[in-house]
Amino acid sequence: MRKSEIKDLIIIAAKLLVICSIVAVIIASVNFVTKDKIALNERQSTAQALSQIYGFDFSVDNMQFTAKDSDGTVLAVCKAVDAQLEGDVRQIYELETNGKISGYCVSVSPMGFKSNINMLVAINPNLTIHEVKIISLSETSGIGTKIMDFDFLSSFVDKTYPVSESVDIISGATKSSKPVILATDNALTCVAKYINSKEAEENG
Amino acid sequence: MAKKQDSIKNRFFEGLFEQNPILVQLLGMCPTLATTTTLENGFGMGISATAVLILSNLLISLLRKFIPKQVRIAAYIVIISGFVTAVELLIKAYVPSLDKSLGLFIPLIVVNCIILARAEAFASKNGPVSSMLDGLFMGIGFTFALSLLGAIREILGAGTILGHVIVKSYKPMLFFSLPAGAFLTLGFLIAAVNAILSYSKSAKGGKSK
Asked: Residue B44 pLDDT more than 60?
């Protein structure tokens, strides 16, 4: 290769680097402006999903979700706990009603066929599944989206660990349904560990 | 001044009718068919693509003497995808309902051939203001076609417009909400627009004689 050709290549590469840098600055600026609003929107989606699962009207209240009646009396509180998280588990929430713990809700994001499936796993205090709710997904319409069907999601109700042995994968949508099943097992494992560690702390 | 205004007016009508990117040039068929299940979705998609068109045309025009010819397509794609990401973040933040309904089709604006075509055919050869206007007028034409198609499909396929029931006794034809209905509706629209344009051209030709 001649020196002039090498020089031309270097100039082209340098110009492409400048263009990429300009675009990166634009994206970074927009991200800086919008990240808080996007995070708030995600929390509001979670509040909506919690409302549908438990029947209370939850709203975002700082770092927790609170349901109040028309007088302002707190009916239920769903707050994030400090627990050891594994796999795709993003957060464990503890549900309190009338001052007692009445359940746990785990936010999980397993990788589906195309991208992450955002879901909530509601778990009873006796470690049975109360409900599994899919919040958002980008799976193939008509195939991967079958994981939102009532028949599949209702098959999780009242199941215990390991859910993978009692809930069937959807035929033709393995890469979407299997991560949901495994994520549910992960959620159960994390909640069980959290309950055990809490009991160990209380017992001294 | 009058010439300039005429030119802008001509380009506006070109983008809307004579050179409409969907109904005449048949570009961007994938998002056209997939997102026009309702008027709101079609309009939202059109506005998003218009924003990307205007901004990418502007930046490409500003950098037209800087971008090397040998890698111009790669450079255009980088610029277009940057603006698509920015628009996607803005939609996620301020119009989350549109983000939920359009979903994966927002990032797919990157490979919408209208945007790359206008970058190569116009923005890379003209000044920033002309390029922005070109993006605006093509975007208006794109949005108009998507909105029209979305409105027809929503009325026939769901019996509603913007979510409001039009005639209570009307039983909607689900076919028009499905892909096959999209193809059929688009086909009839293209035929109608081309018939009108052809008649208009022959009428103008007759007058000049």
From this structure: yes
Question: What residues in A contact B67, CB-CB < 8 Å?
Answer: 15, 19
Q: Which two tokens stand for residue B146?
A: 């998507």
Long-range interactions of B18-22: CB distance < 8 A, separation 24+: B18/B197, B19/B138, B19/B141, B20/B141, B20/B142, B20/B144, B20/B145, B20/B193, B21/B114, B21/B138, B21/B141, B21/B142, B21/B145, B22/B141, B22/B142, B22/B145, B22/B146, B22/B149, B22/B186
Distance CA B53, CA B132 (A): 8
Confidence check on the interface: ipTM exceeds 0.85, yes or no: no
Window from A35-44, A104-113, B29-38 with minimum mean pLDDT: B29-38
Identity of the residue numbered A185: D
| Interface mutation vs chain A, best among B54, B63, B89, B92, most A CBs within 10 Å | B89
> Contact A186/A192 with Cβ under 8 angstroms?
no
Cis (ω within 30 of 0) for the bond into A179?
Answer: no
* Banded model confidence at residue A27, pLDDT cuts 50, 70, 90: very high
Rounded to 5°, the CA angle A14-B110-A11 comes to 10
| DSSP state, residue B123 | I
For testing contact with chain A, the best of B33, B104, B110, B124 (most A CBs within 10 A): B104
- Which element (helix H / strand E) includes A24? helix A3-54
Kindly list the distances between the CA atom of residue A41 and the CA atoms of A35, A75, A119, A188, B206, in Å, as whole numbers in the listed order. 10, 23, 15, 26, 59
User: What does B41-102 look like in DSSP terms, one character per residue?
Assistant: HHHHHHHHHHHHHHHHHHHHHHTTTTS-GGGHHHHHHHHHHHHHHHHHHHHHHH-HHHHHHH
